[in-house]
Design a protein that fits this description.
The chain has 13 helices and 13 strands. The protein has 367 residues and is an alpha/beta fold. The structure holds pyridoxal-5'-phosphate.
Length: 367
């Protein structure tokens, strides 16, 4: 039994999957085509169909996906973009890269996801987009966000880096916003063996802009029609690997959810608040508990050989790189929960015996 990692990528990519992945790499090697070729085209088609949207534009990573999707919906320097502050600085990094301004709105106490009400209250005449992050594998209240974005005619962007496959009423994340950004970083529910990302959208206009921006802003070869372009391409090897892993995604998500449910049944400690994990709108990317003495439990788990993490320890507006501009900002719920959250091991290959062991250790903790 090894619980010293919150995610074991060796196990995740091993066994029969390893053979399939190796065969895919050999196939690409033999094809002699390494960038923007048939594997990328096939993956984009398959992932768009999976998400229930018309277009997928694959990219080099999820942070580029956020930046290019913002550019794709028309965000420019000086514009405001509303986002949560508890989601690891990724959306802020993308907004700042454009020279736009992140405007932080508070989260819901129960889910720790961006609050619709708080986001609506943060709208000004300079607001050019809203980013909703489906943090921890939980889906935000998308019918309410959709209605609000339509009311103000503001583009709604989903950050789905932690929620591949989550759905509500049969409609998956990525299909609710005007466009959505995905990361395929190796630890994600759908992870490459290296970096990768994508923008999905049913808007031909947004998709074609992002497609141009991922390749220097080219409209056609060597003709740069869009500012803000760069090289951000998913390579053929990663696309071939992702095509194989996409076929297993729903099964992995079910396993992650089962693990989360087993934790929820097994953890009986009165000091610990458990997450809501039992719908298809949760895909178990991270299993996050809450408690007042978070750091003490973390130390205790470490003594018992059990890994844990904090996603994330610093709110975006408190990050040293930007905090001077945000001295006036204070979001009470984001601040309170940041000191309470603790992520326990959760990945599809974790065994029920390991989950039981973690529960037993936690239940034996004298807070
Ligand atoms: C919520 C969220 N958004 C964006 C990203 C950025 O993705 P990448 O690391 O592929 O740039 C990540 C994770 O890494 C993430 O967790």
């Amino acid at each position: 039994m090894s619980l010293d990692k919150i995610n074991d990528l060796g196990l995740h990519n091993g066994g029969s999957l390893q053979e399939e992945l190796a065969a895919a790499l050999t196939r690409v090697l033999a094809s002699g085509w390494f960038v923007l070729g048939p594997e990328v085209q096939a993956f984009e088609k398959e992932f768009a169909a999976y998400c229930g949207v018309k277009h997928c534009v694959s990219l080099a990573n999820g942070t580029d996906a956020l930046e290019l999707v913002l550019r794709g919906v028309g965000v420019d320097a000086g514009d405001e973009v509303i986002t949560a502050a508890n989601a690891g600085m990724y959306s802020s990094t993308a907004i700042l890269a454009i020279g736009a301004k992140p405007v932080y709105a508070d989260i819901e106490e129960s889910s720790m996801l961006l609050s619709v009400k708080a986001a609506e209250a943060a709208i000004t005449k300079h607001t050019k987009a809203i980013i909703v992050t489906h943090l921890y594998g939980q889906m935000a209240d998308m019918p309410a966000f959709r209605a609000m974005a339509d009311k103000y005619a503001i583009p709604l962007i989903e950050d789905c880096a932690q929620s591949h496959g989550a759905a509500s009423g049969g409609k998956r994340v990525g299909a609710w916003g005007d466009a959505a950004a995905f990361s395929f970083y190796p630890t994600k529910n759908l992870g490459a063996l290296g970096d990768g990302g994508a923008v999905v959208s049913s808007s031909e206009m947004i998709a074609s802009r992002v497609r141009a921006l991922r390749q220097y802003g080219w409209e056609s070869k060597y003709q740069v029609a869009h500012r803000g372009g760069r090289n951000s391409r998913l390579d053929e090897m990663q696309a071939a690997l992702l095509r194989i892993k996409l076929q297993r995604l729903d099964n992995w998500n079910r396993k992650r959810r089962d693990i989360a449910l087993a934790y929820n049944h097994g953890i009986k400690h009165p000091a610990i608040r458990l997450p809501q994990v039992n719908g298809e709108d949760y895909v178990g990317h991270l299993y996050v508990i809450r408690l007042n003495r978070r750091d003490a439990l973390r130390d205790y788990l470490k003594q018992h050989g059990i890994a844990s993490e904090v996603h994330y320890p610093i709110l975006d507006y408190r990050q040293p790189a930007v905090s001077a501009q945000y001295r006036e900002v204070s979001l009470p719920i984001s601040e309170k929960t940041t000191s309470e959250i603790l992520t326990l091991p959760c990945y599809p290959e974790l065994t029920m015996a390991e989950v039981e062991k973690v529960c037993e250790v936690i239940n034996g903790w004298h807070a």
